[in-house]
Design a protein that fits this description.
By secondary structure, this protein is mainly beta. The chain folds into 2 domains: about 1-20 and about 215-230, no CATH class; about 25-205, no CATH class. It has helices at about 5-20, 220-235; strands spanning about 25, 30-35, 40-45, 50-60, 70, 100-105, 110-120, 125-130, 135-140, 145-150, 160-165, 170, 175-180, 185-190, 200-205. The strands form 2 sheets. An 8-stranded antiparallel beta sheet has the order 2-3-4-7-14-9-12-11, with no helix packed on it. Strands 1, 5, 6, 8, 10, 13 and 15 form a 7-stranded antiparallel beta sheet that branches. A hairpin with a 5-residue loop joins strand 3 (about 40-45) and strand 4. The two termini are about 25 Å apart. The model is unreliable at about 5-20 and about 215-244 (pLDDT under 50).
Length: about 240
């Protein structure tokens, strides 16, 4: 293999690695839970010690506060075990052991999440949406993709979650992670079919404040390879007898 082909292959491998490698996500530490009043709040702490505040509210069709089933914070059963349904080539880590909110649905309530600043492509981890014989759906107001799923705490399988037209997530004992597509400071959903119970939490990779939309920078090793590749290409293309 020629030197030029070797460096081109190295650049391709570096770029593929930087694109495909999973990264850590930072999940909500739910701190204040009021199931009877339909509200909860928490905080996401990023590596630079900055924080993003997260609020949750269940809202009745009349606009009055709704309810949710229960929540866990700091301690309780680890419903995120096993971790495999929540880990993928994109997301490096499952939610922390105890943190979740749980819904029943079926009461025409709307569930609203608010973030204290704009977040690109946040994720939502979900445990036990539906049952094998009971189809349950989350009808979102925003587009999403399923990024991972599998057998979780209550069973399920690798196809128990399905993405349907109209931004609807269908579960038949579904455990996994979805990612919202775009930049959000709020999003919401409904749960038309009741089922006792299904849990969720949220995570982010970074914020627009820390990583502006047009601020994507290749990894240092990739930059070096790209520079070297460009140098080799330029020297390769010089005509015989040309001087630098």
């Amino acid at each position: 293999m020629s030197p030029l082909k070797r460096i081109s292959a190295a650049i391709g491998l570096a770029l593929a690695s930087s694109i495909a490698s999973a990264v850590p996500y930072y999940y909500v530490d739910w701190q204040n839970l009021n199931p009877a009043g339909g509200s909860a709040s928490g905080v996401i702490t990023l590596p630079d010690a900055s924080t993003v505040n997260v609020g949750f509210q269940a809202i009745n069709p009349t606009g009055s506060p709704g309810t949710f089933s229960f929540g866990q914070t700091q301690c309780g059963t680890n419903y995120w075990n096993p971790a495999s349904p929540y880990i993928s080539t994109q997301v490096d880590n499952a939610p922390p052991n105890c943190e979740l909110l749980a819904l029943v649905g079926g009461t025409n309530q709307r569930y609203v999440v608010t973030l204290s600043e704009a977040i690109k492509d946040p994720i939502m981890a979900i445990v036990s949406l539906g049952q094998p014989g009971l189809r349950t759906t989350y009808d979102f107001d925003s587009p999403f993709d399923i990024v991972s799923q599998g057998t979780g705490f209550w069973g399920g399988n690798a196809t128990a979650l399905q993405e349907l037209a109209g931004d609807i997530l269908e579960g038949r004992e579904g455990h996994g992670t979805i990612q919202f597509l775009g930049t959000f400071s709020t999003f919401s959903w409904t749960v038309p079919t009741p089922e006792n119970w299904h849990g969720f939490t949220f995570g982010i990779r970074t914020t627009e404040r820390l990583e502006p939309p047009n601020g994507t920078v290749p990894l240092p090793g990739t930059l070096a390879l790209l520079g070297l590749g460009g140098f080799l290409l330029s020297t390769r293309r010089r005509p015989n007898g040309a001087h630098a």
